[in-house]
Design a protein that fits this description.
4 helices; alpha+beta; 168 residues; Alpha-Beta Plaits
Length: 168
């Protein structure tokens, strides 16, 4: 006998500034497996530290071949996400990655409750996500940081871990 589907929804009115971010790391070369595996424990430790504003962290697998894994995170607001992304340990991860991607590609797509989306794709050799259907170009000038891609007003709480010149 078939059972009825249990449908549930949520009331997000307590989260007017909610931010959802999907992140992924894709292995591009065999050595990238080692790079990717080094990040697992680091990310677990960062999540266990309960950064201010992180509401939920969920690991994801996008594909096994090529190996492509990531996460979905829910943040209270953009300021919390940006502050964490510009602080340690994330700051060091980003600095190291832009110097040498270690055979991987990294990307994120961010979605905002109040509207707006932004993304970045670094060393991702295939079109995925927004790049699969939308015009894309270099992450330079106004397209360099998530804050400017979104048109968020004001100044960040911390400086960017890398400058545009360092990745040009």
């Amino acid at each position: 006998m078939a059972s009825k589907v249990k449908r549930v929804t949520v009331d997000l009115s307590s989260y007017p500034d909610l931010v959802v971010i999907y992140l992924g790391m894709r292995v591009n070369r065999l050595g990238g497996v080692k790079t990717l595996m080094k990040f697992g424990p680091k990310i677990a430790a960062a999540v266990a530290a309960k950064p201010d504003g992180l509401l939920l962290h969920e690991p994801l697998t996008y594909s096994l071949f090529p190996l492509h894994v990531g996460m979905r995170q829910y943040w209270r607001d953009f300021a919390s996400l940006e502050t964490w992304a510009r602080s340690m340990p994330h700051q060091k991860w980003w600095i190291d990655f832009v110097r040498d991607s270690g055979g991987t590609g990294f990307w994120h797509e961010t979605y905002f409750m109040r509207g707006g989306m932004e993304s970045i794709y670094d060393d991702v050799p295939v079109r995925l996500g927004f790049t699969a259907f939308a015009p894309n170009g270099p992450a330079r000038g106004a397209m360099f940081s998530a804050r400017t891609r979104l048109g968020v007003k004001g100044e960040p709480n911390a400086a960017s871990p890398v400058t545009e010149e360092e990745v040009s």
